[in-house]
Structure formats: C-alpha cells, structure tokens
Amino acid sequence: MVTKRQALRAVALCLVLVAAVKLLLSEYRTERKQKLAIVDPGSFWHQGPKVKEAVTVHKSEVLNSFFNWAQKPEVPEPPVEKGADTAPLETSKGPARIVHLDLKGAAPKVKYMKQIFPLFSSLGADGVLLEYEDMFPYHGNLTILRSPYAYSMEDIEEIKSLAKLNKLELIPLVQVFGHLEFVLKHERYFHLREVRAFPNSLNPHHPGSVALVKDMVSQVMDCHPDARWFHMGADEVRGLGESQDSKNWLHSNKGDVGKMFLNHAVSLARFITERRSGVRVILWDDMLRKISPATIKESGLQDLASPTIWNYLKKMDTDGIGTLISRYHEAGFKGVWFASAFKGGTGIDQRWTPLDYQLQNHLSWIKVMNSMTKYPSVTLHGILLTGWQRFEHHTVLCELLPVGIPSLAMCLQSLKHGAFDEKAKMEAHHILGCTIKVEKDICEGSGAFSGSQIYHMVFYIHTNLQKEVEALMKHYHIKGGFSRYHRKYNFANPRIIGFFQGRLKKLLDKWETYIENFRMEMEGIYFPDTVEEWMEENVNANMDLLRENARDAERILKLNGQPKSLKTF
Q1: Count of domains for the chain
Q2: Cα–Cα distance measured from residue 187 to residue 465, given in angstroms and rounded to the nearest whole number
Q3: Domain that holds residue 463
Q4: What is the set of active-site residues?
Q5: Please, what is the Cα angle at 110 between 104 and 116, to 5 degrees?
Q6: Is 130 domain-assigned?
Q7: Do 185 and 318 belong to one domain?
Q8: Which of 123, 232, 335, 549 could join 412 in a cystine, given CB atoms 3.0 to 4.6 angstroms apart?
Q9: Quick one: which H or E segment has residue 183?
Q10: Per-residue pLDDT tens over the stretch 410-451
C-alpha cells in the first residue's frame, strides 16, 4: 500500500525529471556546451584566462546534479569572517585590469568620458581608478580645495552612470598622507605640514591632520556608496619624521619611522573599513618596502588593506618584485595589486608617449604575474594601469590622455593576450582604427578613437613646430643681419629683410591657422586652464618667436636702413 510519504516523494521525483528534460531539450536546441575554466592565478590572461583543465559539462552530469540536489539536505553557506579578504574584484578573465585617470592635471570634461569609457571597456578594461585630487566637488569647510573647474555633484553622478553602463568598476582615490600639495598649499593648512616650508606631506601627530583627511575621505565615500574598493594613496610621504612633533615621537619610540607611518595608515584604513562595511582599502606600497614584515604584522594593516606594488621602469627587477610579494605574504597580506604605467611614467615633461618603453614595462609585469603560482596564498586582485598627468601638483603636464590612448590599447591588449602578438595587434587596430607601430612610437592611420584628432595634431606639433622655427632662425640672413641685437636697436638693411620676410610670414600664417584649429579641438575635451597650460608649455615660446620676428621685420623695414635707434623696443 502506497503511503502518503511515498506519494509525495514520487511527485517530487517527477517534478525533478520534468525540469531535467526541459533543460536537456533547451541544451539540444541551442547546441551549447558549458565549460568550467579553473583559472591559474599565475596565468595572467593568456588569450583570456589560462585554463588548467577545460571540463565539458555533459547532460548526464546535469541530471546527476538534479538528483543529488533532490536527495541531499540543504547545507547553509559558511559564515564570512568579518574583515576577511572577500568579494574580490577579479573577473572571469582573471585579475582586474583597472585604468587610472589622474585628474590632478588635464582632467577631461565629462562629455569626453562618455566617449572613452566605452573605449576602455572594449579594449579589455574592467574598471577605472579615479584620482580626484582637486577635481572633486568638496563642500563645507573643504570648499577651498576645489579647482575652479572641479566636477559638480551632477557630473560625478553621470560619471558613475557611465561606468555602470560600460561595466567598469569605479575605485575612488584620495591621498591621506603624502602628495597632499593641493591641500597643504593653502595657508589655512600650513600648520598641518610635516615640513613647514613644503606642502608635500601631512604631520600625522597634529590633531587637525586626521580630522582633515577623514573629512575628505568621508565626502568622497558618500559620493560613491557602491564602491567596493577605496584607494587611500599613502605613497612618497616626503620629509616624514622632520617636524618637531615627529622628532618628539621618534625620541620616545626608538626612532622607528616605519611604525610612525603605519600608525597613521592603520588609523585611516580602519576608519574607511568601519565607515562602510565591505569596503576594502588599497594603498601604494613604496612606504612599506623598508618596514619589516613583523612590524607590519604587529600594526594590523594586513587585515585592513592590500598593497599596490608599483614599478614603471622599462627594465624592472622582476626578482625584486618577487621579494616584495614574499615579504608582504610574510607580513600577513592575503592579496596584492600591481601597478604599471601606460603613460606619464617616463619624463616629467613628456609630451609624446614612448611605446616601446611602456610595452616593455607591461611585458615585465606579465612575467611577474606568470610567476604568481609561487605564492598560492597570495591573491592577485588586479593591475592598475597608471596614466600619470603630473608627477605632483606643482609640476608640469605629462602626455595628454588622447596621446596615451594607443599606448593604453597596446598595454591592455598585451595583458589580455599575454603578449603584444598578432592577435593583440589586430584587435587594437580594429578598435582604434590605426595600426600601432611600436618601433616608430606612433599609431599609423587616421584613427577612429575619441581624441584621435588631438593625438595626430600633438604629434605634428611635437615633430615639426620647434624644428621648423629653429630651421628658420638659422637662415643665413636672419643669423647675420637680423639678430636680437639688430632688432633691439631697430638696425637692419631692408635688402637683407627682403631675403627672409616672405618665408617668415608664410610659416607664421601656417602655424597660426594650425594652432587655432588645435585649440578648438582641445577646448572640446579640456577646461580652459588645461588648454592655456599646454599651449604655454609646448607652443607659445615658438609662436612668440615667430610673431616677434615678423613684427620687428615689418617695423624695421619702414626705417629704410637708418642708423641705430637710441630708443630700444
């Protein structure tokens, strides 16, 4: 006799069989196979994730999984330890590839971000690291920190929407220790400087210091409620230990500057993690390199943050990077980030991105990433492809973002494919609309990427403006009969002026037209301060020389070769 319990069991079994048959039919119609790829943490995305074993999930296994589910009791998920290294940003392709936007110089308008965020995504980026500096719309007591062209709150919301639309993780970055020039340059904060004469670093012992950076961090965190990571900078803390407060502290603590750094870093990292549950902290690693693993472990930083090991050199010491990974593992860090450079990591006033330099840097990082199997207990969260716009707040601009786009494409594709091979080159060409020639430092072709006009115009200015002006200034008759001395005293032979005046005027007219068109392109992407600065640093000196010579030639020509004028001009 069939019991009620047996009947219920039979009904449940029938339901399971029906569901399984539906799944089989669906799979038959689509003729798709699922594959489970076990990602090797040291593979670093050789043509997508490197697969230790590609396992085809057969239909029989699907049926078995259904039957096993029906027969096994439900097991609750294990509890997650608070503060553990969870919810990683790693993607199905491997560790995350994050593009760094350094906004402390040449910050682009939001309308340009609308164009480049889809480009970043198509090139293989998983996220964007936003180093706000003075472009964040700080309010209240911090309003003074804002650039005159700082983004508005509405702009930030649009940036977040653009990132979400293009499946890009946003990671905000706020400096909390070093590189606070944009804050400490204001007289209001002079008393918080570690070295009174320099605006670089914060005095960690002054009670107002921690309150200041906590306020800054809070405003940015409030604007990014969905951020899973928060980068607190903390690199290159210049002059640490030189204030009287620091000297007093060091006198009582065996002169341990490393511990002094850790105290401040831990305080801020703990503040960030406690302010919002689940947020994980990143910091640059250079200040940790000379601190012993035991001292780091004692501080507790390893439970609050992940270090970013950065190196932007063409030929970097990969064995040295391995030593750092081992030290951080010994210190108790469960995961690390790496940081390369696609631009802004070479010359302090670099105008044009050296492609081979940036490629070799990334190939070195790929070598390091392929060696991560040596460190099975250390998770590689991802790599930050830095695109520095200034070395610091008070220095000149490095390469403009559009100038660095081909380099970024080359670097992202190299990371994606494990090398800048033919497949990587073809994919970059398809997306950019131009062909990257590493040996020539150029992307040949018209280019279809956003900002390509500026890319090509900067190249033309870079390779021709100064060269053509210098060539004209070496003209026989300018050198011999129209020198600075001649122009100063209005003394020249009209016959000599006639030999070069036409050529001078033609060159000036050509460049006036070209620079005006270039300015219009720049104004479409950048705010007025960036346009002015770039022109002043890269164009105006040569243009002014042409203009001055043209004006002087016209004026002195009218004097008909008269004696030297006692009145200078």
Answers
A1: 2
A2: 40
A3: 458-559
A4: 236
A5: 90
A6: yes
A7: yes
A8: 123
A9: helix 181-184
A10: 999 999 999 999 999 999 999 999 999 999 999 999 899 999
